[in-house]
Amino acid sequence: MLDKNRLFPAESASRAVAAKLYETVRDLPIISPHGHTDPQWFADNQPFPNPTALFIQPDHYIFRMLYSQGISLESLGIPQVDGKQSADPREVWRLFARNYFLFRGTPTRLWIDFAFAEQFGLKERLSAENADEYYDAIDKKLRTPEFLPRALYERFNLEVIATTDAAVDSLEHHRKIKASGWKGRVLPTFRPDAVVDAEYLGFQDNLKKLGEVSGEDISSWKGYLSALRKRRAFFKENGATATDHGHLTAMTADLSLNEATALYERIYTGKTNPGDVELFQAQMLTEMAGMSVEDGLTMQLHPGAIRNHNPHVYEKFGRDKGADIPSPTEYVRSLRPLLSKYGNEPGFTFILFTLDESTFSRELAPLAGHYPCLRLGPPWWFHDSPEGMTRFREQATETAGFYNTVGFNDDTRAFLSIPARHDVARRIDCAFLGKLVAEHRLDESEAFELAQDLTVNLVRKAYKL
Amino acid sequence: MLDKNRLFPAESASRAVAAKLYETVRDLPIISPHGHTDPQWFADNQPFPNPTALFIQPDHYIFRMLYSQGISLESLGIPQVDGKQSADPREVWRLFARNYFLFRGTPTRLWIDFAFAEQFGLKERLSAENADEYYDAIDKKLRTPEFLPRALYERFNLEVIATTDAAVDSLEHHRKIKASGWKGRVLPTFRPDAVVDAEYLGFQDNLKKLGEVSGEDISSWKGYLSALRKRRAFFKENGATATDHGHLTAMTADLSLNEATALYERIYTGKTNPGDVELFQAQMLTEMAGMSVEDGLTMQLHPGAIRNHNPHVYEKFGRDKGADIPSPTEYVRSLRPLLSKYGNEPGFTFILFTLDESTFSRELAPLAGHYPCLRLGPPWWFHDSPEGMTRFREQATETAGFYNTVGFNDDTRAFLSIPARHDVARRIDCAFLGKLVAEHRLDESEAFELAQDLTVNLVRKAYKL
Amino acid sequence: MLDKNRLFPAESASRAVAAKLYETVRDLPIISPHGHTDPQWFADNQPFPNPTALFIQPDHYIFRMLYSQGISLESLGIPQVDGKQSADPREVWRLFARNYFLFRGTPTRLWIDFAFAEQFGLKERLSAENADEYYDAIDKKLRTPEFLPRALYERFNLEVIATTDAAVDSLEHHRKIKASGWKGRVLPTFRPDAVVDAEYLGFQDNLKKLGEVSGEDISSWKGYLSALRKRRAFFKENGATATDHGHLTAMTADLSLNEATALYERIYTGKTNPGDVELFQAQMLTEMAGMSVEDGLTMQLHPGAIRNHNPHVYEKFGRDKGADIPSPTEYVRSLRPLLSKYGNEPGFTFILFTLDESTFSRELAPLAGHYPCLRLGPPWWFHDSPEGMTRFREQATETAGFYNTVGFNDDTRAFLSIPARHDVARRIDCAFLGKLVAEHRLDESEAFELAQDLTVNLVRKAYKL
């Protein structure tokens, strides 16, 4: 099912180089600096419940495709806002198996086939016929010690994995992991969206909680900033090396102290003017950049997703149900206030992501090829795919070079897919380098160096790991 | 002139698979669910007048390219608004032949070479030298029974062909075809632009006519909607399975009954406020979607063309003279009102097209990979080409999969080019699949299934044919 | 270091055709219709000072990449606004050599390797180890007669080179060259940005100077236009065949005489309303097009760069320091006023460039494939690269054809890179044609013709050289 040359160019000269390069990176440790696994898994080290709960229900790539073809989320057992969830796991699995052909040509198919073959030894393509056999085989393995979270971490050859955590999080699971003496490195990432976006669900409560956990008076701009500074320090003490910011746009602002103070007052009291919510987020990106200059945490920006586009799905099933849709994203004017203030600061690392591929050659590579602080994150979400990665390299490299990029992010809550995702990225990078060598645009010796850099060196440097 | 491996990848492993796949789809019937052929051809079954009238004068791809290189539309015999048209057909043909080199690298060249070789047995490239020989050979064949419209329909192995017809059309030609007993399936498509776009030429007269043919009082919002409902039913009785909507943008709206009633009053009386014309079109897309939910007609949206960009050409020669130019098109916010209302309706099929390729990976594939009603139309107009089709598959498949697409549309009024256009589409799909197989991203057995699906199964399902 | 098949496709059938095509264009003369070399070089024919001053300090591609990786512009000896510049040339060279790996995968690397190998006979990749050896070898050659500017012009097989010159320029160097009897053709290009953009540094002084050199009263709209007409005539007398316009957007306008007169009054007196500066530039594009219709100068438009994005760099180092960043650029609505007025004029040639690649297939190719005046300039600046050129051909050819393009521009102030840049363009065009032939989309005999056209014929015609 998994050909050893998969994802390499069909053309033989390029393929030969790609395969040689891949041999040298295949077994390197996995460094996962950005993702959404649950730290409690590693803290408690309990078995995963069943194949459906592991593979299907947490993976929006899977259920969004099934939903697009008329399969209801109820029938897939996706948990509902009111707590209902009735589907039988085995029935859901059969439904998935019958429709597995829908994933032809998608990265989901690559990831899942890899997990089936490499982790469960299942080598025949999943189908209606073998659905039960698959279910039973996986279910059985999940009850073995080899499939407990910590064992999988080790088996996957993970060197470090970062989670994503709310600014007010107690980091109890991270602390429990550390206290346990287990040698796995599971690091938190500081994600303050819920206390920065005034339209976030429960924003006022989140602010209150921020005040409580930090011991600061968050009714004033100064106290609010102090609270965030303290939380960042707390995250850093617990191993964090980075922050992450999910915004609708890349807009930044650089307000005067008086303006910012007045704006926060309106946000805090909920008496906002039109545009205030977006302006506050814009100002906060610049504030966060300033704090990164101070404390050295690497800053990540993920803009451009319109969240919860489908109100029917949102009302019944809540957030993160495959109904987030990208939109055109502007960077050059939007980032100027932040970059004018901090763009030339030594030691500041600011990693940009995009869902709008038209910006790679037009905006992102030119920006990253100039500003010392900027680095380009890998292709994200819908573009974390063979074609997406290839376009990224083709469109960004000539202007930004390889050395303004930061290696791969798996960005996933689907733990079992992590080795597969990194394997795809390594193969596509080797394929790209192989083609450059075959076209005499790069020496083979340079390609070997680059393969190492793209797999482990650049990510370690950018995320200070 | 036509190599049997044309359009397949040069690389031998991919090519071998592509060629094998193509063998299995080459002779499948042609299903043409969207195009602009004239139903009168099939109703009356009269011979086409001459080579120039058949190949050059109805084909905006051809005369726009010649015009761009300084060849006047007058000298090509393009009919003028005032009825003038003086060029001698043979002289026009010679002018075309002398400039045939201009089409190198364009799809027009592929289509025309195919028609020359496959339908007229002309195997030497058209040039100044053989222009007369070509003209005479084609002219002679056009007078034979084998080149009458119905004979060509059969010879082309057409299974069904849809035309595009105004909402007020009598469908007399379609009825005549049916009454004739001829077994060809020539179906109308409901296209209401002329009674929905208040800036359309003769809009007020079109509304009046709509009232007459439907027997409804179109002075009220309610009567106007009833008239449209009746016309849709009339089209459906006469074989229509789809509607088509050509709009400047993809904007949709979901107004309250009071708002919509008042808006229609302003539109009907011509006393519009700024933005009303666009808002009315936006509201009408949502109304049309609602009627599709009721009557089951598949809905198609073709947004993004700025019509009649060149006033000089428009004044002298009128519409559709190669001076329509695409513009950036937004889908995600624009379609939200319609999708929020009807996006999750079972049985509703809504096919999106674009002239803005940057939306494939950013907006269209993510939308189609979530909403049950959405499907992606094939690359349209300027992008109906080998590179355009390849980009579409590369940019849409990883997120939308193959099964949220709907096969090929020829979208043409150039009847002779239909087999060529479908042949190009089949070759490029096989080329794409061949590359996936050669790169071990798809099994060969799956590629054979997909080749059938992309050629006949998906189009039959999406258009209910 | 330079493989003879570099940049050709790895696939052997395509490569074989590409290599044969390249043989026929490799030694054709270089025609450079657009660039930024200094005419004084050819007028005075003095040696270039040293390797660093020749290769590094004038080349923003080089120092922007080094800066993006944290290397200060001071340490590279980039001249500062206050006149300071202290870095030792040899130390700068060593710094460059140590960091030469950063350019892997970029066109800069291709250009520089070519210059090292072909012009200086240096065949080992530049590195920290051989930095001094390189420096000494280049430095020594620069003192020989073979490396004086005129000798290099001849050695590079230049047929003609155009410079870019302010509207008020005396063209003294061009006149000196002509008077010298030397047979090299160094032609000026009329670039009026500094007297058209009211936000240009020293705009009021520039206007005053324009009045002086033309002998016109530029306090009135009429006098201002007369002054520009006279300057164009002066440029034309001194060999110019083209004008060039660098604007933030592609916006054009077609104001009435009264509106334009009033607008100029506001611009001239500095009492502008919001939007006036942009509107004036928009109107001036249409005026310049009208003058091109009169005097036959080919018009070039380069829109879309946000200049001096980094205020820190701008304040200390001034313009053109690698901190210009592209932004989304709209053409279809923007150019309509100009094209409505002059788009169908016989003999008018208007060449469009872009930094926004999403416009190639969406806007530029459809426009150029219709309007007789329009031609597409080659991929520009960040897109003057193997992948950029390939995308241009893939995205523009199917709609605009090859014959609405104008060959290659090197657009450089890095004189030594000119042969390398033209060599890359020739190789990529041959690679593109080779692939079309191998995929049976073009006959080999046509590809040989096209290779000549793309290399010399189209540029001669478009620029009237």
Describe this structure as you would to a colleague:
Chains A, B, C: GO terms for molecular function: glucuronate isomerase activity. Chains A, B, C: It holds the Pfam family UxaC. Chains A, B, C: It catalyses: D-glucuronate = D-fructuronate; aldehydo-D-galacturonate = keto-D-tagaturonate. The structure is a homotrimer of 465-residue chains. In chain A, 49% of the residues lie in helices and 8% in strands. The longest helix of chain A is centred in the C-terminal third of the chain and has 21 residues. Chain A folds into two domains: 351 residues, TIM Barrel; 100 residues, uronate isomerase, domain 2, chain A (Orthogonal Bundle). In chain A, strand 10, helix 16 and strand 11 form a beta-alpha-beta unit. The mean pLDDT of chain A is 97. Chain A is α/β, with parallel strands linked by helices and 465 residues long. Chain A has a four-stranded parallel sheet, with helices on one face. Chains A and B meet through helix 4, helix 14, strand 9 and helix 17 of A and helix 15, helix 16, helix 17, helix 18 and helix 19 of B.
